[in-house]
Amino acid sequence: MDQRAARTALLDAAEELFYGRGVQAVGMDDIRSASGVSLKRLYQLFPAKEQLVEAYLERRDERWRIALAEYVAERSDPYERVLAVFDWLGTWFADPGFRGCAWINCYGELGAVSPGVAEQARRHKEGFRSDLRRLVEATGLPVDPLAEELHLLAEGAIVTAGLLDDADAGERARGAAARLLAARGAPVKG
Amino acid sequence: MDQRAARTALLDAAEELFYGRGVQAVGMDDIRSASGVSLKRLYQLFPAKEQLVEAYLERRDERWRIALAEYVAERSDPYERVLAVFDWLGTWFADPGFRGCAWINCYGELGAVSPGVAEQARRHKEGFRSDLRRLVEATGLPVDPLAEELHLLAEGAIVTAGLLDDADAGERARGAAARLLAARGAPVKG
DNA sequence: CACGAGGGAGAACGATCGTTCTCCACAGCG
DNA sequence: CGCTGTGGAGAACGATCGTTCTCCCTCGTG
Lengths: 190, 190
Description:
The structure is a homodimer. Chain A is mainly α. The first copy, chain A, contains 9 helices and no strands.
C-alpha cells in the first residue's frame, strides 16, 4: 500500500468514525484498526490528530458540495435548481447514516479549543452559502436578502433534521423557500 | 454554604465554563475552582460529570425559554409577538459571550455518546418549537406549516450566528419571517 | 475536655489516549 | 550470505482527568 492509498484509507476511516461517533470518542487506535494503516504511517501522514480532523472536514466539504452541485445540475430551470437544494438536503436526511451536520458537530466539539477546526467549519458554511447565492443569482431575482434567507432555511433544516430526527425538515424548508421565491417575483408553478 | 447555595454555585460555574469552552475542555477541578465548592460536595450533589452537564442544560433551558417568553410578552399584538422572537434572538447574538447554541454544541460534542445529553438537546429544541407554535396559534393564522417554517428560520439564524459570527442573522430571519407571515394572510405593516 | 460527624484541601488512583519507541521481519543489493 | 533500511505490530510513555481517598480542622454535644 503506497502513501496515496494509505492516506485515502485513513481519511475514509476517519470520516466514518468521526462522523458516526464524534471526534473525541474515537482514538487514533480505532483509526488504525479501521483503516489497516499502521500508527507509524499514520503519524507520518498526519503528525497530529488535529490535522487528521481538519483533513477529514476538508475532504468532506469538497465531496459534499460537489454532490450537491451535481444534483442541482440535473435540473435546467434556475428556480428549480434553487429548490433542488432542499430536495437534496431531504435525501441526505433520509440516509440511514445521517447524524446531523459534520461541521456543526465538530464545531460544537472542538470549535472553542481548535482554531483549525473552527476555520474548517466556517469555510464550509461560507462555501455553502455562496453556492446557494450563485444559484439565486442565476434566477435573475434580486439576490439580497433572498439568498441569505434561503440559506437560513437550509441551515435550520439541517440542524432540525439532525437534532430532532425530523427527516421532513427538507420538504418543509423547500415549501418555505418556494414561498419566499414567489414573494420575490419568481413565477409560480401552475 | 448550604447545599442549595452550593448547587447554585456549581451550576453557575458549569454554565459559564461549559458554554464558553465546551464540556470536554473543562475538568471537574475547573468547576471546583470556579465555584468554590469542594470536590466532595460536588460529587455528593452530582455523582458524575454527565449529571452536572444534564443539570446545566436543563436549567439553561428553563432560563432561556422564560427569558424569551418575557421578552415576547412585552408586545401585545400577536403578529408582533411572533416577530419579537427574532428580535430576541438578535439581542442574544449580540451578547459578547455568545458562542452559539449550547444544546447544539453539546449535542455535537456528546450526543453520540451520552443519551442523556442528546435527550436534553432534543427536549430544548422541541420546547422552543412548541413555544413558537403557540405564538403562531395566537395569531389565528393556519398554524401548519407556518410555525414549522418559522422554526427553521430561527434555527438557521442561531446556527449561522454562532458559526459565522453573523450577528445580523436575527434581523434577516425576522425579515423572512415577516414575509412568510404576510404570505399566509397576516396584515402587513404600512 | 473528649469525641464523633461533617466538610475542606488536595493527593492518589485508574483509566484513557495521543504520541513515541522497541523490536523484528523482510526486501534490495553487494 | 550479510548488511542496511523500511515498515509493521504493538508495547511503552506521559499527560490528562474523572473519581475516590486520606488527613486534618472545626464544631456541636455530653
